[in-house]
Write a structure and sequence with these properties.
Helices cover about 10% and strands about 55% of the residues. The chain is mostly beta strands.
Length: about 100
């Protein structure tokens, strides 16, 4: 099973982009505050890369803005590519559902 549930704040307004084939998408980052404090008593924040496709991307760009609280359900996807002979890995959440 591959299911991710996140609640956090958007770091920027979702903006629609289009692939070469015409499919709409939006890349966002969600800031999720850790529940447990570190040794200094501070709650650290994780910045999670996410991508929404088609109608979900359109919905997000219409109703969400920078700093808004958002809940998402999605799946974790990993991919890799080579850059100047160095293999790079990317993990991102593919958003399937969003909530205010």
């Amino acid at each position: 099973m591959n299911k991710i549930i996140l609640i956090g704040n958007l770091t920027k307004k979702p903006e629609i982009e289009t692939t070469n084939s015409g499919t709409e998408y939006s890349r966002v980052t969600i800031a999720c505050r850790r529940k447990v404090a570190n040794e200094q008593g501070q709650h650290e924040t994780d910045f999670i890369s996410c991508i929404a496709w088609k109608s979900v991307a359109t919905f997000m760009s219409k109703y969400f803005d920078k700093g808004d609280k958002i809940g998402i359900v999605g799946t974790l996807q990993t991919r890799n590519y080579e850059d100047a002979g160095v293999k790079k890995y990317i993990s991102e959440v593919i958003i399937g559902e969003v909530e205010f």
